[in-house]
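Entry 14: structure prediction run for VOC family protein. Input pasted below.
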Amino acid sequence: MNVKRIIANLHAAQPAEVDEFYRLILGLELVMDHGWIRTYAGSERMAVQVSFASEGGSDTPVPDLSIEVDDLDEALRRVAEQRIPIEYGPSHEPWGVRRFYVRDPLGNLINILQHV
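Run finished. Output tokens:
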């Protein structure tokens, strides 16, 4: 048996509230909408991963999601354009990533990162 996907399911009383953040900021496509669940996806093929942590690294809280992008500066520009407060960073971390934390519209802590 092989694991084919791992899907993050986050509670949202109104799933459409996250649309602008995940579509405009992160560029994901709405691929399924049943009203009670909305699923966003990118076109990249991804490795299956799941992490368990006691902290988020560099004495930060554990983020709800970590999202790797190919252009962190563009992600920062989009976040600034939408006036979304940055909770941490941007920071170059000793384990080889550059990252920052923001909160999505539901309050989930999102770690946006790029390997350097």
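Notes: The chain has a mean pLDDT of 96. Will compare against the previous run tomorrow.
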